[in-house]
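queue> pop job 88
queue> type: inverse folding (structure -> sequence)
queue> payload:
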């Protein structure tokens, strides 16, 4: 398995349109005053800054988690480097959500160890929470509040100082292209706008680590692009680290610096999308151009869609509920 960090061709930030195709507002801005800690995608793929070892944003070692007799995460090892966009991929039931809930401190760590910027999530929970923004798969915006009220609520929960609140809320809404719609009820928003509102909720505390669980599930391709454009713009401006789970291999290929392909609670392949597809191409040696989906099929013995059908009812229902609510 390759951990190679070769620069990728295409899909660099600068190649992508910055206009939000749906709402026409430009993604932008840094929220709060966190120093920029990483370079934009493509500047940083060497992974080592001036010979120093890169800082680890997330370190997961031997993580196990079981619901009763059912093992959800089965000895997970993972390192997310500060400033990168890291994709955790896998079918329904692979253990992605359980793993990231352990990282966010929402679930305990029964076995193994999880650290966020060096803070142990089991013993230093509050320090970890102060560093994170989390957009869960289940929708968290209140449809009976305006966009601004939703984000203000999060600013209060995350202890954004009172005198900075209004400005930080406005910055977060602006950063996701919702400045003009800020005073409308969230219930009137499109699916893509709801997802961007949730992004603003997570960004208002100026997190060093943004964790997104299936941020684009159920959205049409234009809305998906809109969500990603805003994530990447904030990332480029602030240097925050992004840990994202997704089913969409094309999104992972386009936006993630590195990906881990997860199946049955374990990482089956890890590397840059390009290194993973290059490795498979070299192994096949038949002149074909494999995709990330092919890599997944190779390591997990089935396509993502086939494996999705094997997910438990609970997993599929949760995915569909989210898709139905944003759709
Ligand atoms: N609250 C729960 N109680 C019992 N089992 C659960 C619970 N949550 C998850 N599981 C089980 O743990 C396993 C991993 O689920 P998890 O949600 O972490 O997977 P996932 O990769 O995030 O899937 P999805 O893509 O559907 O979000 C699955 O078998 C799932 O059914």
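queue> result:
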């Amino acid at each position: 398995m390759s951990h190679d960090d070769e620069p990728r061709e295409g899909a660099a930030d600068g190649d992508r349109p910055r206009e939000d195709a749906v709402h026409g507002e430009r993604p932008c801005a840094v929220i709060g005053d966190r120093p920029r800690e990483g370079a934009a995608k493509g500047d940083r793929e060497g992974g080592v800054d001036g010979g120093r070892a890169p800082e680890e944003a997330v370190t997961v070692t031997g993580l196990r988690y079981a619901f009763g007799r059912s093992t959800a995460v089965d000895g997970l090892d993972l390192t997310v480097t500060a400033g990168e966009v890291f994709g955790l991929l896998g079918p329904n039931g692979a253990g992605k959500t359980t793993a990231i809930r352990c990282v966010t401190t929402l679930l305990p760590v029964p076995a193994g160890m999880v650290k966020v910027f060096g803070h142990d999530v089991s013993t230093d929970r509050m320090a970890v929470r102060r560093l994170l923004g989390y957009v869960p798969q289940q929708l968290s915006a209140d449809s009976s509040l305006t966009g601004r009220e939703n984000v203000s609520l999060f600013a209060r929960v995350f202890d954004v100082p009172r005198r900075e609140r209004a400005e930080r809320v406005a910055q977060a809404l602006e950063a996701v292209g919702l400045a003009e719609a800020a005073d409308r009820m969230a219930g009137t928003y499109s699916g893509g706008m709801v997802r961007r509102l949730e992004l603003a909720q997570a960004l208002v505390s100026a997190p060093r680590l943004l964790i997104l669980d299936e941020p684009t599930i159920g959205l049409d391709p234009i809305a998906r692009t809109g969500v990603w454009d805003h994530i990447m713009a904030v990332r480029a401006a602030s240097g925050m680290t992004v840990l994202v789970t997704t089913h969409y291999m094309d999104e992972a290929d386009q936006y993630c610096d590195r990906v881990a392909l997860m199946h049955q609670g374990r990482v089956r392949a890890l590397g840059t999308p390009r290194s993973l597809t290059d490795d498979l191409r070299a192994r096949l040696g038949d002149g074909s151009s494999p995709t990330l989906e092919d890599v997944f099929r190779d390591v997990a013995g089935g396509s993502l869609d086939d494996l999705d059908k094997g997910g438990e009812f609970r997993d599929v229902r949760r995915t569909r509920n989210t898709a139905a609510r944003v759709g």
